[in-house]
Amino acid sequence: MPVMHIPGHEHQRPKEVTLAEIEDVLGNCHRCPLGDTRTNIVFGVGDPNARVMFIGEGPGRNEDLQGEPFVGAAGHKLDSLLSIAGLTRREIYIANVVKCRPPSNRNPLPGEIEACSPFLREQIRSVWPDVLVCLGNFATQFVLRTDKGVTHLRGRLYQTGHFVVAPTFHPAACIYHSDWQPLLEQDLAMVGAWLREHPRDGAAQPGTTPAAPAAPEGPKEE
Of 11, 18, 49, 63, which cross-links 59 as Cys (Cβ 3.0–4.6 Å)? Predict the structure, then answer.
């Protein structure tokens, strides 16, 4: 996927373009039919310099009404689980594959993903996190460029270019499949272990357990 041109930037290196500039280009988007049925665009929220970026599928009803990702039941569940990775909501950045709610919370269609995913790609390049946590199939398949499902891919870390990628279940899915929540918790614990083993200052914290090594799989995302 080519780099989206952001006005005022010629080469657009990672972290060069701000999230606000990307949101300005998005504007009052009607690049796909979801623009005609949404209440609000749900761009993303959180620390623009976060080490960890969480990527979901698309806004639900509450997100559509409030214009912010993960504010409904799935968001509350995610908030309660972040501490497993040693994180808080204010330390992460959250975005979705599509920025507008699909009617009745149906799956986003390929054309809708194609129209919207360049903005997610630029968000990733702007934040340039160390870890991408992909919540569910659509985020996982976009980042790892695969047709495999999260059930097959979860449970390990993948290295794709600059990023360590952690595919896992969407918190909303765990509301209806309670047996998946322990697996989501295991994946978040693995992310937390990797973060402790790879602190930003380059010195591992004593007494930490190394995470499973990132597998050299998946295409480069940069």
Answer: 63
Show Cβ contacts of residue 177 under 8 Å, excluding neighbours closer than 6 positions: 169
- Dig out the tokens for 31 from the structure: 């690049």
Is residue 208 predicted with pLDDT exceeding 70?
no
pLDDT tens per residue across span 8-56 = 998 889 999 999 999 999 999 999 999 999 999 999 999 999 999 999 9
3-state secondary structure of 160: strand
Closest CA to 138 of 180, 94, 97: 97
DSSP one-letter string for 86-146: T--GGGEEEEESSSSPPGGGPPPPHHHHHHHHHHHHHHHHHH--SEEEEESHHHHHHHHT-
pLDDT given at position 2: 57
Structure tokens at 58: 């698309």
Mark residue 125 as left, alpha or beta (left: phi above 0; alpha: psi -120 to 50; beta: remaining): alpha
Q: Quick one: which of 30, 19, 9, 52 has its CA closest to 121?
A: 19
181 burial type by CB count under 10 A (0-12 exposed, 13-18 middle, 19+ buried) = middle
Each residue of 107-119: pLDDT tens digit? 999 999 999 999 9
